[in-house]
Amino acid sequence: MTPRFSVVIPAYNAAATLARAIESVRAQSWPAHEIIVVDDGSSDATADVAAGFGDDVRLIRQPNQGVAAARNRGAREASGDWLAFLDADDWYAPDRLRLHAEWIAEDPTLDFLTGDYEYRDEAGTPLGTSMAQHDAGRRMLDKAGGARRVVMDAADEIAAFVADHFGDTHTLSLRRERFIALGGYPVGFKVCEDVHLLTRLVAVSRRIGVSCACLAVYLIHGGSATRRDPVAAQRENVRTLADLARLAENFPLPVRQGVAARMADARYNLGCALVREGQRLAAVRAVWPSFAARPGRQSLRRLLSMLKG
């Protein structure tokens, strides 16, 4: 099977960076079946930038509904059998699609694929790679033993991946029919919607292909919502994960374990953010559900560590 990739790029007021993202897709060593830009109600020249690429880009315009709705719209309109996503301020490495497409053609039993990527700041300075900075990623690099590919299929690997995943939206490749069946990205959440979809995808998967090569670049912004208002961002994170935890009751055990660990970390991070703002009582309330679920010395040490700041 030769996969046909539809690359979906949601864009909101992204006129300054969209051309770079599109060019990175056009430069792929494995050509995309189509490039879809969803202009999510931009007030700048985003649509003009996309339209400037002519027939190379399919432009869809909609009122502002958020990034999840924009990605979902692009996926619904896609004509390829596989989906890949790219945010308008990030970009693909030249072999991003080829490394996944060739593997898909060789091994149709893969449920979905992900991979490594590079962090950079707004000046373009490299800040490390995703897999090396996450426990789940380091496990897979060790398993790969220097190979460029490795399959994630063991229970402990999956639990670790759900708890603290490497890879991101721009390294995810999945069948369009699976994306549609899962309902796509959840709308109504400001953060962590990518984790919500990824976890639901893992829950119905057995063999996950991991490319150890860097597939894309993720740009870290100094003025991100997390940095502007960390308490609000962490509250939103917990809210999204609470919805996911509700669904997780029906997930396989390793996925449930991963969700529980991720929720505990999210509550801890919210507590730390509250402590930094002098709201110690609110911080204790934030982490208490996790402490009550798993009381013990380790949980107590974590609570005290949070309160110390």
UniProtKB/TrEMBL annotation:
Keyword Membrane included in the entry's annotation: no
Keywords, comma-separated and alphabetical: Transferase
Glycosyltransferase 2-like domain location: 6-113
Recorded GO MF terms: transferase activity
Pfam families associated with the record: Glycos_transf_2
Protein name: Glycosyltransferase
Organism: Thiobacillus denitrificans (strain ATCC 25259 / T1)
